């Protein structure tokens, strides 16, 4: 038992354990407290409250890394007090980030020589990376339009409606119109034909996703490149492509090396990837690389003189930790191509086991594809009785965090569950998850159908058509309408709880 005295409490022995007064009084929540408390008590109180957070390892909602080797944990802890931005003071850290940029650019087939340095930067995640890439496109487009004496005040960007929310953020913060290609039932990625149709002279770039957040599916960047090249030739524009490879950038090179999605395609000018997803580093690192120096307008780069050499920087923030960059370099040299390949193959095998188990219940349709990011997205074949949102809620009881969400426009009536397979999700865990899903399904069959109740109540709000035995007035709806009503209701319910997919 630790006993401490504090200066402000000179005579009082303070037991920092459960006998102390610190666990008896409510914690300050709105105002910084007047007095100090012993460090042991602070630790205990915070640690205990945090026990109520979910277990990150069982958080199947996220792509973000939840396990690293102890040796790397050690490196991370020993560099936790290093500010990345002090490049003069920590030149080796800067050098490690530059090496990572080179390695990633090479992995994505950037047209650079053996010993040539690549153009790119480490970021806090793909979101910052996408802001930077988007800014570069916007500025390049504006410069060109200005030099041609044409208006440059209405830039737009073409994406699928399945884009991650950070693209909407980019559009709003940097005043670029987001033109989204709508989805449809059974097709949940951007259709390159429609995307190219939407391109006009104000389009700063078309953003394709390698690993759609919703289903893990890769968009057809090769076809996009082909169609856009044709359009560019016909119109005289030179609309480029950005690939958002946040999750797929560390999958495709190892599992599908012959898939052409990267700098092998001439119109691909920049690519982002999340180091903290399949780059296998804890949260806090992403990367953006450009094809050539010419693709990153010089006026966006700040030049820092470090050790007499020029270190170009291009980021949105200033200070940040160094640990994640060091950890990324650790993973690259520790695992090598071989190691990454093995891990991604394992993830894919586990995905297959899980998918087969889910299919075997006979109650789900699988929406994810065999080729893509290792995840299983699945929807209920029949959601007239129960919904995926109920399944998600019930799985919580077993500790599993499995998100349920509805698809974007025009497939909003489809609600899905998604399980992301990470390195630390073993086959045994996959088998347990399958058996827990089976349990939940059995339980639900025995329960009164909550979903139809929700549908009925909503139907009551929408209109009247006949009276049911229990007095609930309902409007007869076709299957699609019912699905839409049910999923909308549940979506509201879930949104109130502020849970989403990331
Ligand atoms: C995760 C993700 C992002 C956002 O990346 P962060 O690294 O979390 O900032 C963007 N796009 C796609 C496709 C993603 O999967």
Structure description:
By secondary structure, this protein is α/β, with parallel strands linked by helices. A seven-stranded mixed sheet has the order 3-9-8-7-6-4-5, sandwiched between helices. The longest helix is centred in the C-terminal third of the chain and has 38 residues. Helix 3 runs parallel beside helix 9. The N terminus is likely disordered. Pyridoxal-5'-phosphate binds next to helix 4.
Strand arrangement in the largest pleated sheet: 3-9-8-7-6-4-5
The coarse silhouette is globular
What is the structural class?
alpha/beta
Round the mean pLDDT to the nearest integer and report it.
89
The proportion of residues forming helix, as a percent range, comes to 25-40%
Cα-to-Cα separation, first versus last residue: 42 Å
Q: What small molecules are bound in this structure?
A: pyridoxal-5'-phosphate
Order of helices and strands: EEHHHEHEHEHEHEHEEEEHEEHEEHHH
């Amino acid at each position: 038992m630790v006993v401490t005295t504090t200066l402000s409490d000179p005579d009082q022995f303070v037991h920092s354990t459960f006998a102390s007064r610190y666990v008896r009084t409510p914690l300050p929540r709105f105002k910084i407290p007047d007095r100090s408390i012993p460090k042991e008590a602070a630790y205990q109180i915070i640690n205990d409250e945090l026990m109520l957070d979910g277990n990150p390892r069982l958080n199947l909602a996220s792509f973000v890394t939840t396990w690293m080797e102890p040796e790397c944990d050690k490196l991370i802890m020993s560099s936790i007090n290093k500010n990345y931005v002090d490049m003069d003071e920590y030149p080796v850290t800067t050098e490690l980030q530059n090496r990572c940029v080179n390695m990633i650019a090479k992995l994505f087939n950037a047209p650079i020589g053996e010993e040539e340095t690549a153009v790119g930067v480490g970021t806090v995640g793909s979101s910052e990376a996408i802001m930077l890439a988007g800014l570069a496109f916007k500025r390049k487009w504006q410069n060109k339009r200005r030099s041609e004496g044409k208006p440059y005040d209405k830039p737009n960007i073409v994406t699928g409606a399945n884009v991650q929310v950070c693209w909407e953020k980019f559009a709003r913060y940097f005043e670029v119109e987001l033109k989204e290609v709508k989805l449809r039932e059974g097709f949940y990625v951007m259709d390159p034909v429609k995307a190219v149709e939407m391109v006009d002279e104000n389009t700063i770039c078309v953003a394709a996703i390698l690993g759609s957040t919703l289903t893990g599916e890769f968009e057809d960047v090769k076809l996009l490149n082909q169609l856009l090249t044709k359009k560019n030739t016909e119109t005289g524009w030179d609309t480029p492509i950005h690939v958002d490879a946040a999750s797929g950038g560390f999958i495709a090179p190892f599992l599908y090396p012959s898939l052409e999605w990267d700098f092998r395609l001439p119109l691909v000018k920049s690519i982002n990837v999340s180091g903290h997803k399949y780059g296998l580093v804890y949260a806090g690192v992403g990367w953006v690389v450009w094809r050539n120096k010419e693709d990153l307008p010089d006026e966006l780069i700040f030049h820092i003189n470090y050790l007499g050499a020029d270190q170009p920087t291009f980021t949105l923030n200033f200070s940040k930790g160094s640990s994640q960059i060091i950890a990324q370099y650790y993973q690259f040299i520790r695992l090598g191509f071989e190691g990454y390949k093995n891990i991604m193959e394992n993830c894919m095998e586990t995905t297959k086991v899980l998918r087969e188990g889910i299919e075997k219940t006979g109650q789900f349709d699988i929406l994810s594809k065999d080729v893509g990011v290792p995840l299983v997205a699945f929807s209920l074949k029949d959601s007239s009785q129960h919904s995926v949102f109920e399944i998600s809620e019930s799985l919580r009881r077993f500790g599993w965090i499995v998100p349920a969400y509805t698809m974007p426009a025009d497939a909003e009536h489809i609600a899905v569950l998604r399980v992301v397979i990470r390195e630390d999700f073993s086959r045994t865990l996959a088998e347990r998850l399958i058996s827990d899903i089976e349990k939940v399904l059995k339980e639900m069959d025995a329960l009164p159908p909550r979903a139809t109740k929700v549908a009925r109540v909503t139907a009551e709000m929408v209109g009247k058509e006949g009276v049911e035995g229990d007095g609930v007035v309902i409007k007869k709806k076709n299957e699609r309408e019912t699905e839409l009503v049910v999923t909308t209701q549940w979506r509201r319910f879930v949104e109130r709880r502020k849970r989403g997919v990331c």
